[in-house]
Amino acid sequence: MKINIPHIAKLANLTIAKDQESMFETQLSSILTYIERLNEIDTTGVEETSQVTGLENVTREDKSLPSMPQEDAIFQATTYNSFFAVKGVFENE
User: What pTM was estimated for this model as a whole?
Assistant: First the structure.
């Protein structure tokens, strides 16, 4: 099977030297051949699986915790309309 390595490299935004094209073509061809072998396996009756551990995301309940009053937070800060004021980071500011 002839694989267009320069086209694939362009799609993947990769720079590949001319002398590497044949190596990558051989490797990619080998990978695709292996995938074709996997496609021949009969998987009827096999349930789709996204993970096998049975674990689920466990999260805690949100709790309201005491926070610092705004006046204390901005006590020594430079502010603008009750928000922290910082120097601009873009050139046009």
Answer: 0.47
